[in-house]
Structures are given as structure tokens and as C-alpha cells.
Amino acid sequence: MSTTTETTQTYDVSTGNWKAGVLGGIAGSAVMGALILVMNTATLAVAIPSLYGLAPPPSPAAGLVVHLSHGAVMGVLFAGLARLLSLESPGELLGLGVGWGVATWALFAALLMPVWLGAVGSPASPPFPNFAPPSLLWHVVYGAVLAVVYAVTADRI
């Protein structure tokens, strides 16, 4: 004789966590995009849109749309990680946000992006690896803004 045990787990997608992640990700990538525009316009106008075949010609607008989209997706992942780790205090979330910025810089900007841009034949393909200090700054700012917006809105939306 055999028995079967089933476990059911429900997820409440109406909570604000993923929405706050999207909002925080967009806010963080908007601030980051502004920094990139001021410090290295070619990154926003050529490199980022080149990931999807949208450059040349240089287009800061296309780069910003792609960048905001990436920021929103990474914000949802941040929200999931914050929930998984049961982080709720603003200080904990800020620490996670800064760490998230460093991690996204190392994994995506420094390692994946040079390979991807080289594979698509982008004129803005950086060397591999591309551990550029300005990019680290941009990603840390992204993570900090993401975390602050997330902390303020997670229980409200």
C-alpha cells in the first residue's frame, strides 16, 4: 500500500514587492542613465542599444529605453532576493542594493556585456573583462536608488 502526500504553496502576487522592484529598478536605472549621459554618452547612445542591434546611428533615447527595461527586470530580481532573505529594514535593503549594484556591475557590465557586444559586432565593444571604475559607480548608484525606492514603496503599492 502506498500513500501520496501533496504540498501546495500559494504565492500572493498582489503584494507590492515585485511592483516596488519594478518602480525602484526604473528609478535607479533612470538616475544611472543620467550619470552615464553626463560622464560617457557613447555608452548610453551606442553600447547599450547595440546589444539589440539598435545602433549605429547613436541613439541616447534607444539606449535609455533598453537601460530602463533592464533596470526594471533587475529590480524584480532584487525584490525576490530581498523577500527570500527576509530583509525589511531600510538599512538592510540599502546594503543589499549596494551589493546588488556591485554584483550587476561585475557580472553583467564587466563580463557579459563585452562578450555580447563583441558577438553582435558592436562598434562600442569594450575589452574583456571591462572592470571600469565609472561603471562601478553607476551600478552602485543604481542599486542604492533601487533599494531606497523599494524600501519606501514595498508596503504601499
From TrEMBL:
Transmembrane spans: 21-48, 60-81, 93-116, 136-153
> What keywords does the record list, in alphabetical order?
Membrane, Transmembrane, Transmembrane helix
Q: Cross-referenced InterPro entries, in alphabetical order? A: DUF6789 (IPR046739)
Output this protein's name: Histidine kinase
